[in-house]
Amino acid sequence: xxxxxxxxxxxxxxxxxxxxxxxxxxxxxxxxxxxxxxxxxxxxxxxxxxxxxxxxxxxxxxxxxxxxxxxxxxxxxxxxxxxxxxxxxxxxxxxxxxxxxxxxxxxxxxxxxxxxxxxxxxxxxxxxxxxxxxxxxxxxxxxxxxxxxxxxxxxxxxxxxxxxxxxxxxxxxxxxxxxxxxxxxxxxxxxxxxxxxxxxxxxxxxxxxxxxxxxxxxxxxxxxxxxxxxxxxxxxxxxxxxxxxxxxxxxxxxxxxxxxxxxxx
Length: 265
What we know:
This protein has 265 residues and is an alpha/beta fold. The chain has one domain (5-264): Ribonuclease Z/Hydroxyacylglutathione hydrolase-like (Metallo-beta-lactamase, Chain A, 4-Layer Sandwich). The chain has helices at 67-74, 90-93, 114-123, 216-226, 243-249, and strands at 5-12, 42-48, 55-61, 82-84, 108-112, 139-143, 149-152, 155-164, 167-174, 177-180, 185-186, 199-203, 231-234, 254-256, 262-264. The strands form two sheets. Strands 7, 8, 9, 10, 11, 12, 13 and 14 form an eight-stranded mixed beta sheet that branches. A hairpin with a 2-residue loop joins strand 7 (149-152) and strand 8 (155-164). It is globular. The mean pLDDT is 94.
């Protein structure tokens, strides 16, 4: 990795229906703590050279239905260098049309596996056709697979194989940071690709078991199997509990990420 630091902005840390959940009156969904308000999961990775002070590379992780609001929240108008898509579920791709302000003067590459690429072509044919027309997002769909490496600006990105229940999806290693959302298991072939990471960002849906997501406890166990690595949880439902209370229960080195949180590695 050529740049000195990676800045990670957590744009959304919630599950597919977000938090608060419509119609729910639980303590979390009625909380006044902004850390308990979670948009759909997404993050912005920025490579920051210390001497320059700004970012020279910006990569968006997933582009869900809250993308427009997430960009307005942070006042983001800087160019994006790429979008990495983990899988084709709506909460991870529902905002792709809203990428158009970032493509007025350039094509924006979208990286995804073959299954996701095919589904995106079916859902968004007006965005992903050979002969486009003015006003639509100018997107360049790039098909990748587990183990592929891409140099995006000053950041080296590696595609990580992940199982989301029975569905193979992708996680990503960006520099020395791993981003693994919606995971139940890691592909055995991808385990060596995580060697030497300095930070783990991983999905942790709730405390009770789920067929297609890890629990908080499973995510802690997976992180510990990799070593003593600072870990931030994402893709959480209201069933995780109140942030202020649950954060205090976590072991040292583990944290619940929240919308708007910014960390540097």
